[in-house]
């Protein structure tokens, strides 16, 4: 379905019925990331799968902040009548957005799943690199990011067809969407204190060979939130969700099923 926020289209798929789970993809990906979760868990949960602004089928804006993405998610929940606390699942940039959502809408979060992400802000050098890439993307198109990211996204065992399918999704992300997301990530705040202050159930998932958010970043999040569960999935890179969907879905499902007070129940 498409909803309209401030005159912009935000695309979202909503599947199933049950406790609400909001699944937020990474950069510059789309809601397609969560297809394995939808296929396995739609009978048990209400799965809310947006394309972030400027990604997938959602309209871009020339600039964005992690706060803008978080506000879009809150507007989306309102638009679909979801007032219960959700289990919020964020992959990579989706995790950065999830932290901001927790800062702004804490009462709407019943549980948090952080996969292939990190809580630290960018270093000054990394932020500078993102700003330079954003300027290049506006001139040269999104393919430069798709080409640079594809080799870093996957673990050594990922099939060629999977790599090619995701390269195509990244290359199809509009340049405005890619550039805005790069600037949003460069400017995002550090979230370790946010994480440390969260008392809801938390699951952290990492890929053994993740070159973008390595297991050490997951360990740092676990140290900030000692009550969190940590699962390191062997033989996967940054795209754990689609590289080992069986392992990811099993970890997610087990976590969602054992929540003391199920979100949305
Ligand atoms: C992502 O997968 O969302 C991004 O690669 C995260 C990042 O660049 O920090």
Descriptive notes:
- With 265 residues, this protein is of the alpha/beta class.
- Helix content is 45%, strand content 17%.
- It is built from eleven helices and eight strands.
- An eight-stranded mixed sheet has the order 1-2-4-3-5-6-7-8, sandwiched between helices.
- Helix 4 runs antiparallel to helix 7.
- The model has no long low-confidence stretch (mean pLDDT 97).
- D-malate (MLT) binds at residues 26-27, 92-93, 185, 212, 238.
Q: What is this structure's SSE topology?
A:
Layout: E1 2-5, E2 8-15, E3 20-24, H1 35-41, E4 46-50, H2 66-79, E5 86-91, H3 93-104, E6 109-115, H4 124-140, H5 143-153, H6 160-172, H7 175-186, H8 192-196, E7 202-207, H9 215-224, E8 229-233, H10 240-243, H11 245-257
Parallel strand pairs: 3-4, 3-5, 5-6, 6-7, 7-8
Antiparallel strand pairs: 1-2, 2-4
Helix pairs in contact: 1-11, 2-3, 4-7, 5-6
The structure holds D-malate.
């Amino acid at each position: 379905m498409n909803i309209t926020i401030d005159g912009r289209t935000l695309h979202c798929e909503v599947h199933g019925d049950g406790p609400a789970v909001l699944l937020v993809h990474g950069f510059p990906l789309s809601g397609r990331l969560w297809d394995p979760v939808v296929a396995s868990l739609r009978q048990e949960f209400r799965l809310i799968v947006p394309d972030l602004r400027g990604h997938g089928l959602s309209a871009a804006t020339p600039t964005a902040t992690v706060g803008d993405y978080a506000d879009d998610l809150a507007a989306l929940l309102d638009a679909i009548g979801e007032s219960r606390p959700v289990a919020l699942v964020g992959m990579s940039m989706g995790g950065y957005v999830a932290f901001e959502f927790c800062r702004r809408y804490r009462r709407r979060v019943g549980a948090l799943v952080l996969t292939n992400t990190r809580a630290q802000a960018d270093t000054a050098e990394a932020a500078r690199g993102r700003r330079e890439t954003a300027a290049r993307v506006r001139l040269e198109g999104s393919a430069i990011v798709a080409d640079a990211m594809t080799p870093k996204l996957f673990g050594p065992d990922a099939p060629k067809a999977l790599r090619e399918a995701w390269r195509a999704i990244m290359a199809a992300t509009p340049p405005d969407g890619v550039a805005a997301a790069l600037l949003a990530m460069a400017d995002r705040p550090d979230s370790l204190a946010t994480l440390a202050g969260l008392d809801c159930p938390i699951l952290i998932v990492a890929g053994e060979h993740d070159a973008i958010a390595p297991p050490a970043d997951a360990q740092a999040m676990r140290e900030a939130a000692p009550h969190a569960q940590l699962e390191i999935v062997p033989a996967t890179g940054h795209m754990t969700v689609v590289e080992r969907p069986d392992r990811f879905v099993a970890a997610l499902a087990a976590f969602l099923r054992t929540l003391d007070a199920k979100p949305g129940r």
